[in-house]
Amino acid sequence: MSVSYRQPGVVLTDRRFTVPLDHDDPAGETIELYAREAVASDKADRDLPWLVYLQGGPGFGANRFVGRPAWLGRALEEYRVLLLDQRGTGASTPANRQTLPLRGGPAEQADYLTRFRADSIVRDCEAIRPRVTGGAPWTVLGQSFGGFCTVAYLSLAPEGLSTALVTGGLPSLDAHADDVYRAAYPRIERKVAAHYARYPQDVERVRRIAEHLLTHDVVLPGGYRLTVEAFQSLGILLGSGDGSHRLHFLLEDAFVRTPSGAELSDAFQEQVQGLLSYAGHPLYALVHEAIYAQDARPTAWSAERVRAEFPRFDAAKALAGDDPVLLTGESVHPWMFACDPALRPLRETAELLAARTDWTPLYDPARLAANEVSTAAAVYHDDMYVETTHALATARTVRGLRTWVTDEFEHDGVRAGGPRVLDRLLALVRDEV
Q1: Cα 250 to chain center, whole Å?
Q2: 172 catalytic per annotation
Q3: Which of 92, 119, 124, 144 is catalytic?
Q4: Residue 293: C-alpha distances to residues 28, 170, 297, 333 (Å)
Q5: Closest CA to 377 of 365, 394, 362
Q6: How deeply is 406 buried, as exposed, middle or buried, from its count of CB atoms within 10 A (0-12, 13-18, 19+)?
Q7: Side-chain-facing half-sphere of 33: CA atoms under 13 Å
Q8: Could you tell me the mean pLDDT of each successive run of 10 residues in the chain, 433 residues long?
Q9: E strand segments, 144-188
Q10: Is 138 helix (H, G, I), strand (E, B) or coil?
Q11: Burial degree of 259 (CB within 10 A; 0-12, 13-18, 19+)
Q12: pLDDT score for 413
């Protein structure tokens, strides 16, 4: 039964749907999807077109907005919005260290998780669309990994879409994970250099923390083992609009004096625990590299292997000389499954996924070349999370897709400048610019 309630300026309705775990076996096992419907209070009784929002990730549930912030307020001016928790996330049959043992052992868990990529998410959308819109096509707004899903939607079921909007999420159609990370590490290095240029005092602060971690065994309050590699992964903050500033404030008071000498402060450790833990989004770690897998080649811990090709990211070597310690981000590594209590029970499952060789294609270049859905994409110049050259190459292959390339925002532009970003994309698909 649907339950409706109000927040300032918006009426919300909780909606739940049952869909097949495997859409090729519709009579088989099912899972539950959760979505929150949002409509402007003054339009609640109107017949409005639908917009379905696909969150970034993989592994994150849809935003839990209060009221009408960010892009949602602009969308509610003309749409009824469905904020979908993609399968395995949020309230949609969660997949984590607590629930996955219900599947059986690591082999059964890995088999189960192969059905949590973009193709299954698209088929979920198509399964619930008739129950939401009465069969009418809807607009999809895909942020980051949600954009990957949107391109898969255009490949698999374009008949379900009236409009497709992508923010920071045009994937390469054929790049292996190795190609993705070979492009990523130089991009991340540029972001770190820009941060150090903005906050030069952080060069020494990062070196001091890294040196401490190389000589001390630090376990955070929640049980996360903070190694130097784990600390370096805080560079993921540099991909968001305010991330450089947040990182700076995190670093400035990292140490306190104690009777036994300088130690990492409780306040620093508590913040780092929240930033590094995958307890709230374990699917990100489990299937992150699998979102790039489309053939018989295993991902085989691609980010870890490719990192070895960029020795400047080796903290110990940097500390042996005068080089700044480089941070990392937007990558998953096998050591995470040893450091993070939320991932430790899933390490063997992750190893099996990394070794898998039966991945199927997610995109259809021929169908994209014949695309008839009005499509627009915001491409963020030098996006830390998605390679711009890959995104623009894909944009050229999708018939009719219009791009807005900007350096005004980072990867989270739909959050930071949501109304403007959505306005621009809608103007593009409506030929208003």
Answers
A1: 22
A2: no
A3: 144
A4: 25, 15, 7, 16
A5: 394
A6: middle
A7: 28
A8: 89 98 97 98 97 96 92 96 98 98 98 98 98 98 97 98 97 97 97 98 98 97 97 97 96 96 97 97 98 96 98 97 95 98 98 97 98 97 94 97 94 82 95 79
A9: 161-167
A10: strand
A11: exposed
A12: 83
Residue 233 neighbours by CB under 8 Å, 6+ apart: 276, 327, 328, 329, 331, 333
Report the distance separating Cα 11 and Cα 6, nearest Å: 5
Q: Please list, residue by residue across 34-54, b when 16 or more beta carbons sit within 10 angstroms of its beta carbon and e when fewer do.
A: bbbbbbbeebeeeebebbbbb
CA angle 21, 168, 120 (to 5 degrees): 10
The yes-or-no answer on residue 2 being catalytic is no
Rounded distance between C-alpha atoms, residue 145 and residue 392, angstroms: 16
| Catalytic residue, candidates 340, 383, 411, 412 | 411
Coil, strand, or helix at residue 191? helix
Beta strand pairing status for 138-143 and 255-258? unpaired
- Is 134 strand, coil or helix? coil
Kindly state the helix (H) or strand (E) to which residue 378 belongs, with its residue range.
Answer: strand 374-380
- Quote the pTM value: 0.96
Centroid of chain to Cα 94: 16
pLDDT, residue 47, reads 96
Per-residue tokens: 10: 């918006």
Tokens of 65: 């907005």
At 228, list the tokens.
Answer: 């130097």
85 catalytic, yes or no?
Answer: no
The dihedral built from the CA positions of residue 280, 173, 379 and 121, taken in this order, carries a sign that is negative
Which is the catalytic residue, given 24, 47, 358, 431?
358
